[in-house]
Inverse folding.
């Protein structure tokens, strides 16, 4: 069976979910640009609840976690942040033949490199803040298995030879950046 019950909720198998996601994306793609983007953002918000502040298991329970558990989460987030700039560069290089996407990625990378922060890269601001304000040195943090698997999957997605697929992944990646920052802010506040 492709469906099974867990804790009273109907869960679908991965192939069924993927097919439904593809259908939803195909429907959104038929709409005018602004409606398409709005539909995709709504879709992501409804299907990937962990990205939403009130649904994120860690940030919504951060006040109940130990200081060492919070430190671990912050360290792993720093690993992801460090790798994300490289993923954007890989995606930009992979999509050189799609000028609009290439230009958007180039602009995003320039912002990450410090375009609006007096040429101080965002990653360096984050590293300094963790070290100075939290006494957490993130320079030599190793990936845990889950972080490593996530980064490996994201690199695979961003290096896909289908430009539209990469663009969709990048939209999801960037579209949830603010919610991601709210989540990490809750975790950092609990750590302090």
């Amino acid at each position: 069976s492709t469906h099974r019950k867990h804790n009273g909720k109907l869960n679908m198998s991965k192939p069924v979910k993927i097919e439904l996601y593809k259908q939803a994306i195909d429907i959104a793609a038929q709409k005018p640009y602004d409606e398409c983007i709005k539909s995709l953002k709504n879709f992501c918000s409804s299907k990937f609840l962990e990205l939403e502040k009130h649904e994120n298991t860690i940030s919504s329970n951060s006040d109940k976690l130990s200081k060492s558990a919070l430190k671990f989460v912050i360290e792993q987030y720093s690993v992801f942040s460090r790798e994300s700039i490289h993923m954007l560069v890989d995606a930009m290089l992979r999509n050189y033949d799609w000028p609009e996407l290439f230009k958007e990625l180039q602009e995003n990378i320039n912002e990450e490199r410090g375009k609006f922060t007096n040429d101080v890269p965002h990653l360096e601001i984050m590293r300094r803040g963790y070290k100075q304000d939290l006494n957490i040195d993130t320079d030599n943090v190793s990936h845990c298995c889950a972080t490593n698997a996530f980064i490996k999957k994201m690199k695979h997605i961003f290096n896909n030879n289908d430009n539209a697929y990469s663009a969709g992944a990048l939209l999801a990646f960037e579209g949830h950046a603010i919610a991601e920052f709210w989540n990490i802010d809750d975790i950092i506040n609990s750590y302090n």
Remarks:
- The beta strands are 3-6, 9-12.
